[in-house]
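Example record

The entry below shows one chain as it appears in the dataset: sequence first, then structure tokens.
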Amino acid sequence: MKEITFLDCTLRDGGYYNSWDFSSNVIHQYLNAMQAAGVDVVELGLRSLNNSGFKGACAFTTDDFIHSLSIPSGLTVGVMVNGCELVSEMPQQDALQELFPNTAANSPVDLVRIACHVHEFSEALPAANWLKERGYKVGFNLMQVADRTEQEVKSLARQAMAFRVDALYFADSMGSMNPDHAAQIIRWLRSEWDGALGIHTHDNLGLALSNTLRALDEGVTWVDSTVTGMGRGPGNARTEELAVELAERRGKQVNFVPLMGLLREHFIPMQTHYGWGTNPYYYLSGKYGIHPTYIQEMLSDARFSEEDVLAVIEHLRKEGGKKFSFDRLNTATWQLALST
């Protein structure tokens, strides 16, 4: 069996619920639980230049912030950059220099992942070489590829081959994939890409873990999860479940006691408060390819009744809702009001 890289991205993906504002106590307990559970990489947050509105430290994950943490031995530290920040008006190298002022040898960060929509991918790829020259490992996460054609997916993989990318991920951004669909995407990518492949799953249809395990069977070697699935919309594959499966596949003894304590003390209460996790509305968003943030926004707004949420979902199913936009949500709400 090929060596698997087990990456937990709770503090990055979970931040969409609490504005990346995790207490130092939670972070240190989390880090110890990850090491004990057999996690290889912790993605501690985003690395971003966007400082509008209140955000906690994990929205920026600076070197100084990471140095303030006690990272257990054996854990690789990663951060994620949104590709849109690398294809903006600021020249890419200037943005990278601001985001990563230190080389990897002088930084606590080992891995940088760049999340890209398909239309950003070719323009963002040169960032891989810039980061590799400074000693970082580099991953690219392709978003919203579920409805792309075979030719489009293969073209993306061929483009990646020309750059120094350590792991090419695809994300089930809408949570719409089933295991057979995930396997098909993997085969298309593999036909043109000979490096490591990874998958990041969402749980709209309740298939995040099943899709991840099928991907492993198909030869994917990088897999993601979050504690209790904490992540945008319905969330992701759950670390507490994937850790069990990987321990069995690896034939490795791990200690789940710290992770269970972390759930009981912090993450289950947070889940009760914020409400992530799959439900019928997220199921419909996955089925119809609607961005889960529409559901997340409506469920957090007491003005939306059950009938309202369903009516907006139906509107977005007909009009298209793959890209989240407050304007589109407001338009759908306005048209709903006119029809009642």
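Notes for this example: The CA atoms of residues 86 and 182 lie 28 Å apart. The first helix runs from residue 10 to 13.
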